Request: fold
Amino acid sequence: NTNFFPFGNEAEDILSYLSDDGSRAILLSTGFVFYGTTYTTVFLNNNGDLSFNNGFSEYSPDPFPISTPLIAPFWADLYTGYFGSLWYRVTRDSGVIERIREEVASAFPELTTFS
Reply:
């Protein structure tokens, strides 16, 4: 489907290790500002979310706000130990970043200062 971003080996993504409730620390080349705090590390968590400060193994979604800074686009009990893959990439590619900016602006037009 052309609506998806390219991913996997062809896109030079990194395959995260397979596990249950695991996390992987990813160093960011520039700071990421989230609710006024700048982070230089993000944790890719196997249960469909990104956390800051530490890994996050909770697999049952809780109502927000919670004590852990968290971006949770797909928070569920996932287990990739037998099947499935979790790919990620850190990029500074201006074409990819512009497409992401356009997607967010389209989905959230009230966020006029998103960059």
Remarks:
- Residues 100 and 106 are 10 Å apart (CA to CA).
- The mean pLDDT is 80.
- The longest helix spans residues 94-107.
- The longest strand covers residues 23-34.
